[in-house]
Amino acid sequence: MNHKPEQISTVNPDREKERHARQVKELVRLCGLLRADLSLEEALQQIVASTAACTGFRALNVNLLDQSGKMLSSVAVTGTTEENVRILRENPFSIETFTSMMLPEFCISQSYHIPHGQYSLSTDMPIVSVREVDHEQYEPGEWHPEDMFFVPLYSPREEELLGFLSLDDPEDGRVPTEEAVEVIELFANKASIAIDNARLFHDRETEHKALETGIRALSEDIQLLSQGDMRPQISSQHPLLQPIADSLNTTIDRISGLLWNMQAVAEAVEGHTQIVQQNSELLVHDTHVQEMQVDQISRTINDFAQMMSRISERAANLSNTALDGVDVTNEAQTTVDRTVEGMSLVREATLQSARTMKNLSESGQEINATITSMNDLTMRMHLLALNAAIEATRAGEQGQGFTVIAQEIRALAMSSSDVARKVGDYIHVIQQETTKASQRVEQSTQEVVKQTELVMQTGVALDAIGVVTDQLTHLIDGICSTAENQSQGSQLVVAAITEILRMTGDVTRHMREMQQSTNRLVEYTNTLRARLALIHLREQ
């Protein structure tokens, strides 16, 4: 059973109403104060003062648990001397001492009244005597200085013990009734709310400051990132910001990996680009030289074609002369009886043949010189075909067209070599035969001058001249056909060389464009490396 002391009702009703009105008004005022921006000490002082004014207890003390939850210390006191306040605040005591007195027989409502002599008081209890009373004059129901009355303070949010409110020295000098205890508990409840709110506000303020500190440190690290320094490891001073820091570190590691790869790629591209640039410069130079060589070959072949045209014209004239010689020989054979009369004609024709033979010999020498030039041209064409094959091999797929042209030039060079050799053989035979014919014509002329009577021998000589003239006619026809074919082949070679020259010009233009593109690529690579150099990355 709860301890309920006997009370003698001597309360004035009007005074009691006035007291209740004052208590309600003070409770409303305390509710407004609790919503104000007050510190814990200020709020508790207001509650202690209001409780003392409205409950009839002149001495009040609020004891709160420390952070360890094991010791109680005084935080707000009223109604006693400064010395007692100092003693209360300098002498904390254990929570076990307080909870050991919370026995059912001392409970009134939710508070505890411990009469004197019912509990052995410890020296560390926060009991301060406020007045002296003669024990012999003490009557039942009156308040004894050694009586204790306290109200436990519980957190309305977590329902845990915060401390307790102890009261002493009632104005009426009597033990409080249950109704008075309930009023005191209302004020104690306000104290509990104030304590809980102050602690909650303090925790949130501490959390807010810690969060601000963490955000400030995180902002400094992010500021370094904005300046291109990705080396520092981002750390958080607050656990709520640690996931953000971890995400940023992961993102920075990935970006650093990408940037390292970009730097490696940029270096590799720069190295390959420099090689390509050097090769492009060499290829442009070689292509330009080749273009000049092809142009020179084109001019040489053109001169060769013109020379072959002249050779063809002279061979045609020689063929006509040979035909005239054949006619003269036939006429000499049929008019042997008029040999003496026609000797002058024969000698003149013979002299003309000698001159023709001389021209033919000179033409043979020119043909030999031309053949020498053809052999030189053939050698150059071989070299050109070889250079074109080499350049086509270096150019790769883009040089496949050069390969075909190189093969055609090589085939044309071989054909020209064969033709030149045949022409040389023919000219050699012609020169031999011409030399023999010249000697015979000279002998015939001497014989005609000296011995006109040797008509028969002259007829035989004329027969030999006719045979030689027929052979010479066939040889001249072969020379004409060969010269014509060579002229046509030269025209084809000129057309092919012209096409090669055009293709070489296109290749040169493309190589210069590729060189310009390579130069721009080098510039872009240098710009990329310069920008990447401004970013300081973490070591992989």
UniProtKB/TrEMBL annotation:
Membrane spanning stretches: none
Assigned keywords, A-Z: Transducer
UniProt entry tagged with the keyword Phosphoprotein: no
GO cellular component: membrane
Residue stretches making up the Methyl-accepting transducer domain: 265-501
GO BP term, pick one: signal transduction
Keyword RNA-binding: no
Classification via InterPro entries: GAF, GAF-like_dom_sf, MCPsignal_dom
PANTHER family: LYSOZYME-LIKE PROTEIN-RELATED, METHYL-ACCEPTING CHEMOTAXIS PROTEIN MCPB
Protein name: Methyl-accepting transducer domain-containing protein
Natural source organism: Dictyobacter vulcani
